[in-house]
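Final report, Chapter 2: Outcomes

The project's central promise was a pipeline that accepts a single protein chain and returns its three-dimensional structure in a standardized token representation, suitable for archiving and comparison. That pipeline is now operational. To close this chapter, we reproduce one record exactly as it appears in the project archive, with the input sequence first and the structure output second.
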Amino acid sequence: MNNEATAEELSSFISAMKTYTPYDFSNYSEKSLSRRLAKLMFDHNITIDQLLHKIKNDPAFVEKIVKDITVNTSEMFRDPHVWMMFRKHILPLFQDRPLTIWHAGCSAGQEVYTVMIILHAHGLLDKATIYATDLNEDMLETARKGTYKYHFNQNYITNIEAVMKYNPVTGEKIDFDPSPYYHIDTFKDVIKINEEFCRKVIYRKHDLVKDGNIFNTAFDLIFCRNVIIYFNTSLQNRVFHLFYESLKPEGCLMLGLHETILGPFAGNFNKKEMYFYFKKTAYDSYD
């Protein structure tokens, strides 16, 4: 198996997808997309010509390969120190108001439930309206169910405890009862998010490349972690524009550890606590 598709194969694939399908990968990171295209052809044991023929004539196959290409990984309470920062420095700024939240590129929903657990612990969950979107329908279906393999995801528990067993202000150890949030069945090898949490989230399919704010609402918080790293600079700027326009004046955008806002939109946000970007005009005085 070649680790990457050739430049010609990549160009042909992007062109065919743009011409014959609703999907446009022309602004994805070439290196990342090239690796995924090579894996796709290897997994399906097809040449680029056969792949192009299927793209043109087989819509069901197109949906399958889009899911293959866009599959991403996530976990509950990934990067625990970030969530401690969120609890200590960011969430108190939103303590006294109803919250509208958008998880863009939510994958299988683990981060959605991470935020819900934190909101519940701070007495804010009942005041929150939560939207979550992804391009991959299979990931959305997993998110709606809120059921994950236990043994494959045991580090969830370590991450959760690293954040929720400590007072975010004093650092003192506190009691944490997981029963309002999830149930672990080691015999069935599952972690199951409690049904009330699953029902509260509004999940929708959404393409960050071409879809705008499909909810026609403004958001206090937008979470989009470890997604834009797969986009080129042009597409990143389009997405940052979407997020900027979708945030309330006092709104906050949270990105992943290795993501940052550069270029023309850098001046539209104030970066706080390393990973949080506040829409300018509201929190200029925050320190």
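Archive annotation: Strands lie at 99-104, 128-134, 147-149, 182-185, 190-193, 201-205, 219-223, 247-254, 269-272, 276-279.
This record, like all others produced under the grant, will remain available to the consortium after the project formally closes.
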